[in-house]
From TrEMBL:
Species classification: Bacteria, Bacillati, Actinomycetota, Actinomycetes, Micrococcales
Any GO CC annotation of this UniProt entry: plasma membrane
Location of this chain's protein in the cell: Cell membrane
Major facilitator superfamily (MFS) profile domain boundaries: 1-436
Topology with respect to the bilayer: Multi-pass membrane protein
One Pfam family recorded for the sequence: ATG22
Protein name: MFS transporter
Length: 439
């Protein structure tokens, strides 16, 4: 069934301009520096390489480090957006958290290719993930400031697409500038991991530069008087969060069901990219340069698929798109697992198939919720959407780490990620694409 359109009577900020949409999406373009370069395809691959020790052991340690980061996010993120809304400083905190991520990325330059630097590398990667997710809470909440109920799906997809395109451009720059040549730009070589370490400086500058438009162009958020709340203390914020969820359960139960389901499967989607580069290098023997070439292809596939499926989303509804994408991810992931001895051709084919489904699932998830939200509750529910996803962001890293630790080989981590996706799919299936009247 096609989801009903969001009511035009919803509480909304003034009609956004095209310039504000583009400025907002440039943050996504810049964030590829952390998503693609740091977390997925360059730095995480670097610190799980043989220069730091046994690759299977380090892969498990990486999973545990990200799991700890996820637990911190689970404790702190659910109130981050709420407090920035209440203070009227949503954009301010987006800027602060983005700046912290940029500084952490710069600090990765000092992680030399030696086992003695492994702990520092894992700490910086975990800390970067925490503050990146905090920034993402505020960034996602700003979606309702730069879109209307009728355009929110297109704007959401545009942001995702810009992220993939930014990843492609930046990966091409660092690959041909530093990773591939024996002697790269400015005389940089691979000795002592210098090519990767300089890449972190480029990534930091990229993110910082492209985060500026949203901070300069999009106005600060100010809650309407009808939904404005008094400022409360840190712990009292959790009390208010509980009340919000209870009220939403009473008035919009399908929204709660979807928030729970999407929180789980979105963490599985994040796990696909987080550990994709590690699996390519440690299981399928990709060199660092080959990982980046795969990353470029993966971003092209994901970006094209995300934009192309938008029409199907409008025609068929978001839920069929999400379900199809999750099933496709499960099939592709199991092929990677069972054929892991088949060499790089397996990862090139089944791995790119995984990327084909990730983007559409991410974009359709936001549009599904946009059509489901009761009129006048957009800001509140999109805040919960952002925070519930972060609150369970430890699931995929934990499942990955447990499977690798129990079975003693990195490729078993694939099953951990697939399990998270399966649970998310099963939770999604009963969710209705329309609200039921709650008596």
């Amino acid at each position: 069934m096609i989801e009903p359109a969001v009511s035009a009577d919803a509480v909304a900020p003034p009609t956004p301009t095209r310039g504000s949409v583009v400025a907002w999406a440039f943050w996504d373009w810049g964030s590829a520096a952390f998503n693609a370069v740091v977390t997925t395809f360059v730095f995480s691959v670097y610190i799980t390489g043989e220069a730091f020790g046994d690759e299977d052991v380090i892969s498990a340690q990486l999973g545990w480090a990200l799991a700890i980061a996820g637990l911190l996010i689970a404790v702190l993120a659910p109130i981050t957006g709420q407090r920035s809304d209440s203070s009227g400083r949503r954009k301010f905190w987006l800027g602060v958290n983005t700046l912290v991520v940029v500084v952490i990325t710069v600090a990765m330059f000092f992680v030399e290719a030696s086992p003695s630097y492994l702990l520092l590398g894992l700490f910086l990667l975990a800390a970067g993930n925490v503050f990146f997710e905090f920034a993402g809470v505020n960034y996602n909440a700003m979606l309702v400031q730069v879109s209307t109920p009728r355009s929110i799906g297109r704007v959401s997809g545009f942001g995702w697409g810009m992220g993939y395109l930014g990843g492609i451009v930046l990966l091409l720059i660092v690959y041909f500038g530093f990773i591939a040549p024996e002697v790269g730009l400015f005389g940089v070589t691979s000795e002592n991991g210098l090519a990767v370490r300089v890449t972190m400086l480029v990534a930091a500058a990229w993110f910082g530069l492209f985060a500026l438009p949203v901070l300069l162009r999009v106005p600060e958020y100010h809650a309407p008087a009808s939904v404005r709340r008094p400022k409360v203390g840190f712990f009292q914020s959790y009390v208010l969060l509980g009340r919000d969820v209870k009220r939403l359960w009473s008035t919009s139960r399908q929204t709660v069901y979807f928030l729970l389901a999407s929180a789980v499967f979105r963490d599985g989607l994040a796990g696909v990219f987080t550990f994709g580069g590690v699996l390519a290098a440690s299981v399928f023997g990709f060199s660092p340069g080959e990982v980046i070439i795969f990353a470029i292809a993966a971003n092209v596939v994901a970006g094209v698929a995300t934009m192309a499926v938008g029409a199907l989303d409008d025609r068929l509804g978001a839920k069929p798109v999400i379900v199809t994408a999750l099933v496709g991810l499960l099939v592709s992931g199991l092929i990677v697992f069972f054929l892991h001895d088949g060499g790089q051709i397996v990862f090139w084919t089944a791995g790119l198939a995984l990327c084909l489904f990730v983007g559409p699932a991410q974009s359709a998830s936001r549009t599904f919720l946009a059509r489901l939200i009761p009129a006048g509750r957009e800001g509140e529910v999109f805040g919960l959407y952002a925070t519930t996803g972060r609150a369970v962001s430890f699931l995929a890293p934990t499942a990955f780490a447990v499977c690798v630790s129990v079975f003693g080989a990195t490729y078993w981590g694939i099953l951990g990620i697939m399990l998270v996706l399966l649970v998310g799919l099963l939770l999604l299936l009963p969710v209705k694409a329309q609200q039921q009247q709650i008596s």
